[in-house]
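Hey,
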Amino acid sequence: MNPDLEKLLDLQDKDLTLLDVDQRLDQVLAEEQALDEAVRSAEASIGVAQRSVAESIRRRIEVEGRVETYRKLQEGRRKRIEVSRPGKDTAGLMAELDLSRQVLAREESDWFRAQEAVQAQETRVAEAETAVEALKAEQVAPREALAARRAELEAERAVALAARDASAAAVAKPLRSRYERLRGSRAPRAVVALAGDACGACYTAVPMNRRAQMRMSGVVDACEGCGVMLYFVDAS
């Protein structure tokens, strides 16, 4: 086999090894990201509950304001009745007082409902916070395992990358540049063996004279169909 071709195939093997490590590392990173996303989602529920608490408190404050207003009005009518003489005016004030008492009762009932809503939302916040803490506790062991696996793969990748760089340095620059251009546009193989009389990647037929030239000289030729770098392998 042509020495340049041997070096090129060695470089491709190193790239495939590096690609395998990268894919396994990406999987670990994706699993870590999934854990992070689960925590973010759980924490978002806390934010939703906290906003509901704030809205319920706002409504309660509004009702408190109305209750206080009606209490003052009721107190004012009661004092007017106390100083008024029995008669038509007193009857009118009593009717107003009864109506005010009914309105105040409704407003106080609304306040109690608003207070219950605040308490319910505060309970939701506490439950959501507890759920987040429980989720984080559940993730401790998986995160430690993933961190260990990531460190292992990062070390493996450093070794694979160093081996790849050393292999690339041994390949003639024109051949390496051609290979790098192809590798950047297709994956995972840019150098492919002939499969009989056709390209081993896309199975486009290769003319006999080109196949013979590759066999005799060991040169690397380009596939007219998919553009990969083709080489001849002696079946014997």
